[in-house]
Structure formats: C-alpha cells, structure tokens
Design the sequence.
C-alpha cells in the first residue's frame, strides 16, 4: 500500500460562535437519576492503559490487555476486516476530527502489519446525524459518507466505501472532513446500528456490500458527548447500552467477531482543558457501559492531542479478535 502524506490543513473549519454547543467537562448532571450499573462504573482514576489490579487470583483477567502484538506470529482465522468510523460532526469536533485523520494512516498500516492474513478491508465513515452534505438519497442517519465538507469523495473502486483498491489516506481524509455543522443531538450508537442494519445494506441502498458476515467488524466511535438515549426523551439513540450491545451481536452473530473502540470523554485525570473553547468533553458514561460489554472493547481519551498511541495499543485487541474469529453462516 503506498503511504500517502496526510494533509490535514484543509480541515481548517470555522466554528460559528452563535448557537455553539458548549461541552461540559466532566459533567453529567443532565442525566437526572440515571446511573450506570455498579459493576460497569468507571473509577475516578480510570486509565484505559492501566493493567487490572492484582487481586491475588491466579486466573488471568477475562478482558484482553493491550500488549504489544508479536508480528512474527501468522494468523489463520481472520481474512477480512470491516472498519466503521462513527464520527461526531457537532460544532465542538473540528480539532478532534483533524486528530483522527492524522492518526488514520498509521492505524491502518499497523493493522496490515500485524494481521498477516487480513488482506481485504472495507472502510466506511458515518456521522452522528443525518448528514446534510452527503449525496442526495443518502442524507440519513447511518448512510456512508461519500461527499463531505471537503467536497465529493467517492464513489471509490467498490462504490460507497473505501477498499485497498483506493488510496486510503486521501480517501479517508475526504470522508472524515465532515465539518462541524451537525445536529447537536448526537446519535452515536444509532448511527452505527443503522450503518450495519438491513435497510441501508439492502440491494441498491446506500451501504450495500459494506458489511460482510465473514469479516471482523471494527467499530470506532469518536465523540466528545455521551449518547443520552432513554434518560432524555427525544435525544440520542433509542434503547440502552444493553439493547445496543444485543443488536450489534445479533447482526454479527458472534460477540467476539466485533471490536469496539471509543475515543470519548473519560473521567479525570484526562487531557481535557476546560479553559479552551471546546477543549473539554462530557463524561460518556453510557457509551463506556456499551463498550465495556464487549470482550474486545476499549476506551480512549478524545481530548488527547494525538490518537496514534491509542490506536497503536488497540492493534493488539484487534489482533486477538482476529485470532479468535469465529466463522458464521
């Protein structure tokens, strides 16, 4: 795969002052009485790279740790990977979109290096709303982006999603340059579920051919606000972390055939700076509860200046999922 230098200066998107959505740093009071279950609540000193505490149990933890993968070990089980990026396009996300674009090339190159048999990729981008800049007929929640704030991006070699037949970096840069005029009522999980659902995946629909039953699904969420869901009627995605998890598993057939990575709002200490405009992130409690339900799930700090460290660590998680992939059908 040719390595193409990423040009992120084109992402210089102006953020309108009027009507701006201020992100609450570390706040969650708007959720009223809702609290995540005790067993899934994140500790105050949460760090996604921390090893589990030593409990004296001789058995290893059930969740995989992000150890550095051994690229010399070949894989047999995983030959296909579908990468779906759900990117918040509300008006606090300009810098965070740029950080993602800057980290993408190394992330995909790392997957190719460490997953020896995973030689076929589908890469798609969706927003957290019904994206108004998408091509006519696909301006709905969960439709893959082929036209963005950068202009027309696709169609690519396979149609409305990116493959190895395309120059990955420029294609992804265009698709992920979403702008920040999106709906402030983000529906992160709803977008993911719609993107892999039967309606948009049907013949002739916007996402036809993207999701494959025989592929490992890697879902990547990038957002600085929680998906409020049921606690706030009319806001966020329908359902709860438990129902979201069940729907993803039902769609893929096997829970361990899914990797979920989320760059979102973590409890302090984190890299958020509340003194900067849009320099913070809301605690993403419900998204965290959803992610932690997966064997291969991991949270990272959306306020970080550089996402490459998170993605480098996530390679081991993806590799473990690939090794343990279970064919279905």
Sequence:
């Amino acid at each position: 795969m040719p390595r193409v230098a990423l040009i992120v200066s084109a992402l210089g998107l102006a953020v309108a002052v009027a009507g701006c959505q201020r992100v609450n740093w570390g706040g969650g009071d708007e959720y009223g009485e809702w609290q995540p279950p005790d067993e899934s609540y994140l500790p105050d000193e949460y760090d996604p790279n921390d090893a589990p505490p030593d409990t004296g149990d001789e058995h290893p933890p059930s969740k995989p740790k992000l150890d550095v993968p051994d690229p010399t070990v070949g894989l047999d089980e995983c030959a296909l990977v579908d990468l779906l990026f759900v990117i918040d396009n509300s008006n606090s996300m300009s810098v965070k979109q740029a950080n993602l674009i800057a980290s993408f090339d190394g992330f995909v190159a790392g997957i190719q290096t460490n997953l020896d048999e995973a030689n076929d990729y589908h890469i798609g981008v969706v927003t957290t709303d019904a994206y108004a800049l998408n091509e006519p007929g696909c301006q709905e929640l969960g439709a893959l982006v082929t036209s963005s704030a950068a202009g027309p991006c696709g169609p690519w070699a396979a149609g409305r999603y990116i493959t190895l037949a395309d120059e990955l970096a420029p294609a992804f840069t265009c698709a992920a340059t979403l702008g920040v005029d999106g709906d402030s009522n983000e529906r992160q999980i709803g977008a993911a579920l719609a993107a892999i659902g039967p309606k948009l995946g049907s013949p002739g629909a916007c996402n036809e051919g993207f999701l494959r039953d025989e592929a490992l699904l890697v879902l990547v969420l990038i957002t600085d606000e929680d998906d409020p869901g049921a606690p706030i009627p009319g806001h966020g995605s329908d359902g709860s972390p438990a129902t979201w998890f069940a729907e993803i598993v039902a769609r893929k057939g096997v829970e361990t055939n899914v990797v979920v990575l989320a760059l979102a709002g973590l409890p302090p200490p984190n890299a958020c700076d509340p003194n900067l405009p849009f320099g913070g992130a809301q605690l993403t409690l419900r998204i965290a509860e959803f992610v932690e339900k997966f064997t291969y799930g991991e949270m990272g700090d959306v306020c970080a200046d550089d996402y490459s460290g998170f993605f480098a660590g996530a390679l081991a998680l993806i590799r473990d999922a690939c090794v343990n992939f279970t064919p279905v059908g």
User: Anything to note?
Assistant: Helices lie at 94-114, 168-176, 188-195, 198-201, 241-252, 285-292, 308-323. The mean pLDDT is 80. Strands lie at 80-87, 120-127, 147-148, 151-152, 216-222, 258-264, 297-301. The first strand starts at residue 80 and ends at 87.
